[in-house]
Design goal:
The protein has 2 helices and 14 strands, in the order αββββββαββββββββ. The protein has 197 residues and is mostly beta strands. The protein has 2 domains: 73 residues, OB fold (Dihydrolipoamide Acetyltransferase, E2P) (Beta Barrel); 72 residues, Beta Barrel (Lipocalin). The strands form 2 sheets. Strands 9-8-7-14-13-12-11-10 form an 8-stranded antiparallel beta sheet, with no helix packed on it. A 5-stranded mixed beta barrel has the order 1-2-3-6-5. A hairpin with a 2-residue loop joins strand 13 and strand 14. The radius of gyration is 21 Å and the shape is elongated. It starts with a helix and ends in a 12-residue tail after the last strand.
Length: 197
C-alpha cells in the first residue's frame, strides 16, 4: 500500500500538469483590465475605455481600449446616465446606441475608477479591485462575492446582477429584484460608521 501512494501522487500530478497546459491554450485573452471577459461576453454591448479631455456636460469623449476616439451624446432629453462622474483619464464603461443620423447616444455610463474601492453596509464589507476581483472582509458570509464585471451596463457580482442606480465618491446604490442595497465607501481601516437612509 505504501508503494502505491507515491505512484498515485505522481499520476495525479502528471494529469494536473497536462490539464493546466491544455487550459492555458484554451483560455481567452484578457483585453479589458476592469472586468472579467469570457467567450460568453459576446453579447455584451458595453464599450470600455478612458474618459478623454473633450468630455463635457452632455458628451463623453471615450478613448476605447482599441485606441479609437468616439463621442457619445447624453442627457439632452433623457436623465443623465453618468454614474461616478466624468474625469479625464478615468476608466469608463459605456452602453449606448446609434441614432438614424449616425450619432452615438449613451444611455449608461459607469466610471469604473470610482467603482473600485472598499464598500460597506450593515452586513457586507468588500473591495472591488481592478482586474475583476472582489475581496471580502466579512467572515460569516455564506456566499461571498469574489468576482465582478460590467455586462450590458449592469454590475455582476458572482452570479448576482445589479443595476447601479447611483455611484458617487462616498456612496453606491445597487438595485435588483430583491431590492435596493446601499453601500458607503470605507475610508479608514478602523471602525466604520454607517448611516441609514
Amino acid at each position: 500500500m505504501k508503494k502505491l501512494i507515491p505512484v498515485v501522487v505522481m499520476a495525479v500530478s502528471a494529469m494536473m500538469m497536462v490539464g493546466c497546459n491544455d487550459t492555458k491554450k484554451k483560455m481567452p485573452v484578457v483585453t479589458v483590465s476592469d472586468s472579467i471577459r469570457t467567450s460568453e461576453d459576446d453579447n455584451d454591448t458595453t464599450v470600455y475605455g478612458v474618459c478623454g479631455e473633450g468630455s463635457s456636460m452632455h458628451m463623453i469623449q471615450l478613448i476605447t481600449d482599441s485606441g479609437d476616439t468616439i463621442e457619445y451624446m447624453f442627457g439632452i432629453e433623457d436623465d443623465n446616465p453618468v454614474q461616478g462622474g466624468l474625469l479625464e483619464g478615468d476608466r469608463m464603461a459605456v452602453c449606448g446606441y446609434k441614432t438614424e443620423d449616425g450619432s452615438l447616444v449613451a444611455n449608461k455610463i459607469i466610471n469604473l475608477t470610482t467603482l473600485l474601492g472598499k464598500w460597506v453596509s450593515l452586513d457586507k464589507n468588500f473591495e472591488i479591485e481592478e482586474g475583476g476581483t472582489v475581496r471580502n472582509f466579512t467572515n460569516a458570509e455564506k456566499n461571498p462575492w469574489n468576482v465582478w464585471k460590467i455586462y450590458n451596463g449592469n454590475l455582476l457580482l458572482n452570479r448576482d446582477t445589479f443595476e447601479i442606480t447611483s455611484l458617487g465618491a462616498d456612496s453606491l446604490y445597487l438595485e435588483n429584484n430583491n431590492g435596493i442595497f446601499t453601500y458607503k465607501r470605507q475610508k479608514n481601516e478602523g471602525g466604520v460608521k454607517l448611516s441609514q437612509k
